[in-house]
Design the sequence.
């Protein structure tokens, strides 16, 4: 037996329209963020250093979701929901005969990223008196409500509800109570398992320690350095328990993400 659900509109519990379907089956998602920014007039090369310079966008054409803002002539997009976002950039150049090449690229978190999905375009030896256009397109993973470790207080040891996501490595840490944490780990075959451990927060030494058994130092499995969010793994050697860096700084970040396991499963499609 086949079940059919017929709806015209889907709203959030607060009444915000999330999705509508017309009589022809066409879907509209009005809450999806969309924006367009531009530079209203030409700008001279003095805006750019020999290394790089930001295109001084000064006009917002449209901004659905209010996710983009202009500040100090820089357009910044803040993701409302964790996931992948498509960005497209077109820049026209003129009178660039003194340049050996011209690059255009997008930045993530204020810096050029080594993210394999981040793209740039290059013009070799532009000719004087002519115009050239660079187009850049990138599918970039962004986390919603990005939180540095300093943006919330570690004056208490209870991390219930906090989530640490390591998107490139398909790992996560979900703190489910005052002393329990789910560790979501993915191996090289993209097989993901969830294991529950105990944890405590050492505020003085700035570490979150994760144990197989509660409070037993010799059963420590992972440590997370609070300030850098570096993740270390503990192993037994001939000289006793030692630690080594597993995930360096910058690979993990605190997020408010809902179902972190489902997010990791979705990320597998792009990794």
Sequence:
């Amino acid at each position: 037996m086949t079940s059919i659900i017929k709806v015209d509109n889907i709203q959030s519990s607060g009444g915000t329209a999330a999705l509508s379907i017309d009589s022809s089956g066409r879907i509209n998602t009005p809450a999806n963020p969309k924006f367009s920014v531009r530079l209203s007039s030409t700008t001279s090369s003095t805006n750019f250093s020999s290394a790089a310079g930001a295109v001084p966008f000064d006009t917002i054409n449209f901004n659905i979701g209010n996710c983009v803002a202009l500040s100090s002539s820089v357009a910044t997009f803040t993701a409302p929901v964790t996931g992948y976002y498509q960005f497209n950039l077109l820049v026209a150049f003129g009178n660039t005969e003194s340049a050996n090449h011209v690059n255009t690229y997008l930045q993530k978190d204020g810096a050029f990223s080594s993210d394999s999905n981040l793209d740039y375009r290059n013009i070799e030896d532009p000719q004087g008196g002519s115009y050239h256009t660079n187009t850049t397109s990138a599918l970039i993973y962004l986390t919603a409500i990005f939180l540095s470790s300093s943006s919330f207080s570690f004056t208490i040891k209870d991390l219930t509800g906090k989530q640490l996501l390591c998107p490139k490595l398909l790992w996560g840490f979900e703190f489910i109570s005052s002393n329990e944490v789910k560790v979501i780990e993915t191996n090289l075959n993209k097989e993901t398992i969830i294991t529950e451990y105990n944890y405590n927060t050492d505020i003085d030494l700035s570490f979150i320690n994760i144990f197989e058994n509660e409070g037993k130092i010799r059963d420590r499995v992972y440590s997370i350095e609070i300030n850098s969010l570096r993740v270390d793994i503990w192993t037994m050697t001939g000289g006793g328990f030692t630690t080594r860096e597993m995930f360096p700084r910058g690979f993990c970040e605190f997020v408010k993400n809902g179902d972190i396991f489902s997010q990791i499963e979705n990320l597998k499609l792009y990794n």
Q: What stands out?
A: Confidence is low (pLDDT under 50) at residues 114-121, 146-151. The chain has two domains: 34-142, 149-267. The CA atoms of residues 86 and 139 lie 5 Å apart. Residues 260-267 form the longest helix (8 residues).
